[in-house]
Protein 1
Amino acid sequence: KAGVTQTPRYLIKTRGQQVTLSCSPISGHRSVSWYQQTPGQGLQFLFEYFSETQRNKGNFPGRFSGRQFSNSRSEMNVSTLELGDSALYLCASSLPEGGANTEAFFGQGTRLTVV
Amino acid sequence: GDSVTQMEGPVTLSEEAFLTINCTYTATGYPSLFWYVQYPGEGLQLLLKATKADDKGSNKGFEATYRKETTSFHLEKGSVQVSDSAVYFCALSANFGNEKLTFGTGTRLTIIP
């Protein structure tokens, strides 16, 4: 069974540009969550999508957005990039059942560097 | 809001030493608790979990018990190996259709042969 796949693995962008990151969840998983990992702030929740709907959102500015497609694949977009957006972006998928949490499976992440 | 407080690192131990990494949490209701491990250049892997009070999660020699009275979920291993060197994260999830994980700051563990 294939794991969570994130593309690309590495990305270098210039300040002011925008970027789109992609996440393919494990087959059958309907929930996809995104996290930002930085040395200073640690792991912070960005948002979660379930059945193409954003179900939960963290405290990030509107420059950070996402979406989920009917096949559960998800993308996140960051517009007007700032140096502080440099981070490892992690995607996790899970199969919620009846409200009880199940294991979240993480991808290897996309390392974004803004110069 | 929900929060996780985790023992500061880094932690350096000799092989076969006993390991404890402390984790306490603040949450409303009855969260699920997790320990995740991150190896260099990798994403996070679930190490163990517990979904209700007094549950003990265990995997690969690691154990943690969900203690509601002390709001704690300390990670322990009786004899660590060099291959256990990694960053360990304690996390909670509020349940009830909310897949958001709240993480602690992480503890970097280095095991010396």
Protein 2
Amino acid sequence: NAGVTQTPKFRVLKTGQSMTLLCAQDMNHEYMYWYRQDPGMGLRLIHYSVGEGTTAKGEVPDGYNVSRLKKQNFLLGLESAAPSQTSVYFCASTRGQGYGYTFGSGTRLTVV
Amino acid sequence: EDQVTQSPEALRLQEGESSSLNCSYTVSGLRGLFWYRQDPGKGPEFLFTLYSAGEEKEKERLKATLTKKESFLHITAPKPEDSATYLCAVQAAQTGTASKLTFGTGTRLQVTL
């Protein structure tokens, strides 16, 4: 089992460029999440999904969009990248309430 | 609003020197408290879930305990391979929370020979 796979692992963008981060899980989990991790601020929730075709905003959604067209995939889009979006992005999934998350290995994004 | 505060921010121990990490939390009804380990450049790795005050869980040199206001991660006779950042998170019990976790900022542990 691969668990949660994130692509790409590293990316450098210029301000104003767009990109999509892909998260794929093979555990048949219903719930999926996108977090960003910044020094001193911990993990902050960007968007999440409680099932195929559903998405919802988290704590810091501005500047990001998401889609969950297939149960196993959760995509995070940056429409017009800004230096403030320089961060490490983690995708996670879980089967539901009371269960721990399985995290991907992260995408390190730098916006210059 | 759910809040999680971890202390200390950083801890340096010698091999074999036992200690504890603290996680204080406020949540409107606790569904579960989670501990994760994160190595540099990797995603968090699940360690434990605690559901009610008085509960304890162990894994090798780690033991997690829970009260109504805080959780402790006790590390007994640590080894250099225990060096990592340890994250604490809470999940609220209300319906409609979509199993969301609120994380603390972590304790960075370094164990030296």
Protein 3
Amino acid sequence: IQMTQSPSSLSASVGDSVTITCRASQDIGAYLSWYQQKPGKAPKLLIYDVSKLQGGVPSRFSGSGSGTDFTLAISGLQSEDFATYFCQQSYGPPVYTFGQGTKLEIK
Amino acid sequence: QVQLQESGPGLVRPSETLSLNCTVSGASVSSGSSYWGWIRQSPEKHLEWIGNIFYSGGAIYNPSLKSRVTISGDLSKNHFSLSLNSVTAADTAIYYCVRVETTYGGVVLFDYWGQGALVTVSS
């Protein structure tokens, strides 16, 4: 199963709201998670089961979608949100695949 | 607090075997409540799942790597290991060990990550 994110990069300002899209090459139901990665750090789990926030993740993050199209939304961007975001599907064992990433940069 | 730490050589010669260990603290590798795995990230930042090991000792692997990879666990030392043979430059990556969880809905996610170990394949 291929996961395609768009855009590949995105520029925004503190306080803006942004949306990142992840499209699966086939129906994956709700088997989708999102991760945030900052430079030099390991990815961090943000959202699982499409829309459930991992503990400690601010409520400005939200996820939605089902089937093949999914969205990560961040409302009221904070400086610490500028990072790279990855989606990941777990519908298709024996392979769990990631999107190619979306880099969110400060405008 | 669950913590994972990778260790192993940072440089491996082509055709040789890459070996990494992951030491776990704050959780038991032998616990039936969690699985453990390896993920790598290429220099181009692409993330690739390598495989998972279960508390029973069984493992599943990415089919693209299955012929070359082995993940094993040492319950007495609370760590697990990755072995990847016949490496080439394409195996150069940051290797992360992870804890694998499965939600009630069946979603498989990676909720704890090590800091990562950069492995370069070069002569």
